[in-house]
Amino acid sequence: MSDGLTDVVGHLEALAPMVIVRPKSGDDVEIDPADVVSVRELSHRPVRNSEIRALEHAAALAWPGTEQHWHDGWLLRAGSGHTSRANSAVPLLFSSSTEVLSEIVSWYAERGLAPWLALPERLLPIKAPGVKPTRVLVRDLSPAPSVPGVALAEVPDEQWLRVYARDVPPEILTAVLDGALTFATAGAAVGRGAVTTAPDGVRWLGVSCVRVAESARRTGLARMVCSALQNWGAEQGATRAYVQVLDENLPALRLYESLGFRLHHRHRYVRADSLVAHA
């Protein structure tokens, strides 16, 4: 190779003995592993910043906490500290900027909460690495036959909460803004579905809280729950679905990819007070 660096974009087919990348057109490209400087996973198709903002808007409505406040393009959410999604500020309008971070810090301090920012990639020039790196995966939805053996309810019952086994109050789980909710139970597996509408008019199904009791894992129950939630979402008029999965949760990533979900964008959490301190 020359001293200059060259990008190769395509599907990674092999890592050894040679790295093989299959581009969208043309022949496969073979690269000596010693010549690889960096590797970055890209979205399945080009994604505009406006699409990221629209999806994040729908997702914020689906997990809004119990208190919300708009401040100069940011949606601030609070939920007594239960879950990162329900207790973070997300930039959702084109007018969002970093000039209001001090006010965001004060808003959360008044509630005794850490001032976390939920930062989708590319929307703001903040380079802090943050925590909980997360992949947002999406897929299209279409009507499908109902899934037998999965019960749907408007609120989580005792069995659902027992299987979910997380310290998240029902008032956080059942919060949604201008949308619809369902809670799926299939024996020892549960999941939550929320349908909300993005500013561009797309109705999104958000799949979350998918848990399977340890004794029943790898038996297909999670797939049943996800399929039932997708069918319900399509019935509610959703045309696309998304999941938010931590980078480190490899079993969940494998499950959702096997269900046809593909990378749309990433986000992470950064404390606003750490940015103010270094401003």
Q: Could you explain how this protein is built, in words?
A:
With 279 residues, the chain is an alpha+beta fold. It contains 7 helices and 14 strands. The protein has 3 domains: 40 residues, no CATH class; 95 residues, no CATH class; 130 residues, Gcn5-related N-acetyltransferase (GNAT) (Aminopeptidase). An 8-stranded mixed β-sheet has the order 7-14-8-13-12-11-10-9, with helices on both faces. The protein has a 3-stranded antiparallel β-sheet with strand order 1-2-3, with no helix packed on it. The longest helix has 15 residues. The chain is globular, with a radius of gyration of 20 Å.
Q: How much beta, percentage-wise?
A: 25-35%
CATH fold name of the largest domain = Aminopeptidase
Shape: globular
Q: Strand order across the biggest sheet? A: 7-14-8-13-12-11-10-9
Question: Helix fraction?
Answer: 10-25%
Number of helices: 7
SS content category: alpha+beta
CATH class of the largest domain: Alpha Beta
Let me know the number of strands.
14
| Structural domains: how many | 3
Secondary-structure element order, N to C: EEEHEEEHEEEHHEEEHEHEH
Radius of gyration: 20 Å
Note the main sheet.
8 strands, mixed
Low-confidence stretches: none
Could you give a short description of this structure?
The chain is an alpha+beta fold and 279 residues long. It is built from 7 helices and 14 strands.
Descriptors for this entry?
alpha+beta, Aminopeptidase, 3 domains, globular
